[in-house]
Structure to design on (384 residues):
């Protein structure tokens, strides 16, 4: 009797192990099918490939997966006529700068992590609708560059794996790294109290370390690829902060902390002709200005064409520099794309056609007209 029971238990154990093996095989097959290979870029090899690592400052606005139609994000009802700088570049200089085809590609973070464990290609995470070479995603911070253990898999690692599929294309390519915003904004109040507070220095050191690691990773596999580092902006210039930091001490401390951080980022470029720095805080100040010593938020307006005046205010209409969800507006992004092209020409001697002021007006004016019409119809519907 005991021998019979033992045989039954062994048989059941074998059946259970067989079932578990079947489930495991099914799971592996599901993971393999879930994440397809990267889409193929059929663009001419004469274009300059442009990879992007970053946060919501570079995540394309027309991503209908991340920002479903009708959502309040990225321009709300005006989003069809509101573009990120990535989209502006593709529309105005897509024949020279190649961000890759517009694709829905990637996997959820957990799926991507499981795929990495069994040696499958991760691709992009989270899944989004964007240009193939744009790995920036909303909410990312410096940890997401290389992928700290408790965070999503690294953007830099996944971009390099994609670059490895077509190394010749990246011999003349560029990668833009713009990812420090969320880390730096989190310690803004610490900067006000002490520009060299431990929390401030820790954030700066960590971001510099992660960016340096991303640079090393890219150049180890693709030594000729250029890299443009975008510095931190002055978070006190954000309209959402206008009721704060209205004192000479606060202004001076924020500027001191920002100067120290950007100096460290600029130092990463050093004398390496493959790396350059873009001072986005200075760029913003050159257009709208910055707070005077007493901290009063007195910014100037800039004219785009004959009728549009853009102020450092928040709102989805194109006369605002910043969208209601606290991201760059249409004109802000168009002007940044214009300056980015100039910086790439200057730093790397790339044969890019400058985006002229006339180009900006021709691009923005019809979109602004459509936006006003859309906003008027929305207002009428609300009144009814």
């Amino acid at each position: 009797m005991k021998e019979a029971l033992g045989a039954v238990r062994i048989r059941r154990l074998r059946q259970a192990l067989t079932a578990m093996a079947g489930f495991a095989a099914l799971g592996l097959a599901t993971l393999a099918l879930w994440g397809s290979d990267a889409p193929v870029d059929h663009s001419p090899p004469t274009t300059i490939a442009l990879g992007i690592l970053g946060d919501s400052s570079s995540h394309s606005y027309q991503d209908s997966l991340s920002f479903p139609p009708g959502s309040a994000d990225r321009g709300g009802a005006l989003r069809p006529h509101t573009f990120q700088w990535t989209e502006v570049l593709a529309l105005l200089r897509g024949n020279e700068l190649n961000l890759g085809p517009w694709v829905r590609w990637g996997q959820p973070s957990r799926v991507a992590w499981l795929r990495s464990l069994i040696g499958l290609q991760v691709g992009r995470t989270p899944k989004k609708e964007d240009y193939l070479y744009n790995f920036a995603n909303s909410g990312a911070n410096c940890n997401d560059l290389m992928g700290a253990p408790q965070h999503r898999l690294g953007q830099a690692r996944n971009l390099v794996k994609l670059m490895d599929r077509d190394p010749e294309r990246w011999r003349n390519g560029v990668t833009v790294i713009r990812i420090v915003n969320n880390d730096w904004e989190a310690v803004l109040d610490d900067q006000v109290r002490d520009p060299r507070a431990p929390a401030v220095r820790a954030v700066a050191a960590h971001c510099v370390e992660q960016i340096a690691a991303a640079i090393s990773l890219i150049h180890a596999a693709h030594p000729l690829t250029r890299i443009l580092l975008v510095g931190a902006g002055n978070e006190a210039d954000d309209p959402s902060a206008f009721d704060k930091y209205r004192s000479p001490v606060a202004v001076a401390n924020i500027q001191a902390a920002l100067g120290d951080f950007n100096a460290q980022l600029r130092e990463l470029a050093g004398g390496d002709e493959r790396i350059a720095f873009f001072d986005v805080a200075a760029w913003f100040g050159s257009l709208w200005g910055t707070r005077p010593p007493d901290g009063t938020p007195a910014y100037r307006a800039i004219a785009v064409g004959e009728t549009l005046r853009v102020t450092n205010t928040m709102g989805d209409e194109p006369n605002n520099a910043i969208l209601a969800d606290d991201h760059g507006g249409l004109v802000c992004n168009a002007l940044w794309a214009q300056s980015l092209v100039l910086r790439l020409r200057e730093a790397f001697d790339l044969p890019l056609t400058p985006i002229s002021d006339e180009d900006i007006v021709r691009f923005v004016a019809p979109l602004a007209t459509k936006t006003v019409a859309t906003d008027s119809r929305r207002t009428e519907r609300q009144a009814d």
Notes: The first strand starts at residue 48 and ends at 54. Residues 19-35, 376-384 have pLDDT under 50 and may be disordered. The domain at 49-100+155-383 is CATH 3.40.50 (Rossmann fold).
